[in-house]
């Protein structure tokens, strides 16, 4: 599905939270031993770098060393474990265009040629131990739809039934879908959005959305029907972010861009 192409070199300074292990690791799952959140694979040696789950804060990995310098760990692929989300922060990448990318559980290939991309930090969280991930998954279920999908009444009715989106056992009055990749929405909480109050962030760019409005108050789940408003309109979105990291609530949309500059975050 998602095949993200990039190259990252990772310097193993300040490696207190990181263990480099051989691929033939014993695999003994002693109770109490934390399972890894993600594994990075070295292209030639087969060496693995295990990233632990760090629910609170991203870990600074690179203490100013250049990519490819001694002690750097190059990797050709990586795996994010079930129920986990890995976010990587990079410096010097034209290709990424953004400071960070997030990768849900799955296997990823690292194919971009050339040097110049350095991984500066990461955060890896697993939902078993993290409420934020669960909230994000609920947000995603309610509000993120595929880029190729098309907002319409039929779409709304079908999607809301398929995803079982209800409110207190009733048909939800209004539910907005954003047609975008997870990362584009996630980044509204990071460098692609501006804080407008508390934990609310408004997107820097417009997103294609659809507002699904309940068409018949008398119906009960799962038979809710919906009409589409603002179908496929490009609007700025406002989301609530948990700890500036992940969207957990959809606040609304607007045709007005965020006011730039006043937050000092430019
Ligand atoms: C989306 O719907 C509009 C209006 O019905 C239609 O013109 C357009 O071709 C559709 N796009 C896709 C990708 O299905
Ligand atoms: C949903 O619709 C079906 C088919 O019309 C009907 O049999 C069922 O009773 C309805 N359920 C509710 C909760 O209204």
TrEMBL record:
Residues 1-23 form the signal peptide. Its main location: secreted. Pfam families: RnaseA (PF00074). It is found in: Secreted. InterPro entries: RNaseA, RNaseA-like_dom_sf, RNaseA_AS, RNaseA_domain. One of its GO terms (cellular component) is extracellular region. Keywords: Disulfide bond, Endonuclease, Hydrolase, Nuclease, Secreted, Signal. This is Ribonuclease A-domain domain-containing protein.
């Amino acid at each position: 599905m998602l095949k993200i192409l990039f190259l990252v070199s990772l310097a193993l300074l300040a490696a207190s939270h990181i263990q480099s292990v051989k691929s033939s690791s014993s695999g003994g799952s002693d109770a109490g031993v934390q399972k890894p959140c993600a594994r990075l694979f070295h292209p030639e040696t087969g060496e693995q770098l295990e990233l632990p789950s760090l629910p609170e804060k991203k870990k600074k990995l690179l203490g100013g060393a250049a990519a490819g310098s001694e002690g750097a760990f190059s990797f050709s692929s990586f795996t994010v474990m079930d129920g986990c989300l890995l976010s990587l922060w990079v410096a010097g990448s034209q290709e990424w265009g953004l400071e960070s990318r997030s990768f849900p559980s799955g296997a990823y290939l690292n194919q971009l040629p050339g040097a110049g991309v350095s991984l500066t930090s990461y955060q890896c969280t697993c939902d078993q131990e993290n409420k934020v991930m669960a909230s994000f998954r609920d947000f995603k279920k309610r509000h993120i739809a595929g880029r190729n999908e098309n907002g319409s009444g039929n779409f709304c009715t079908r999607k809301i039934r398929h995803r079982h989106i209800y409110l207190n056992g009733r048909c939800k009055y209004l539910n907005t879908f954003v047609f975008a990749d997870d990362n584009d929405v996630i980044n509204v909480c990071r460098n692609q959005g501006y804080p407008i109050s508390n934990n609310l962030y408004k997107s820097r760019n417009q997103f294609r959305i659809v507002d699904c409005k309940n068409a018949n108050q008398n119906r009960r789940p799962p038979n809710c029907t919906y009409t589409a408003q603002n179908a496929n309109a490009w609007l700025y979105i406002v989301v609530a972010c948990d700890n500036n990291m992940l969207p957990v609530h959809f606040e609304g949309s607007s045709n007005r861009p965020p006011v730039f500059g006043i937050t000092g975050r430019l």
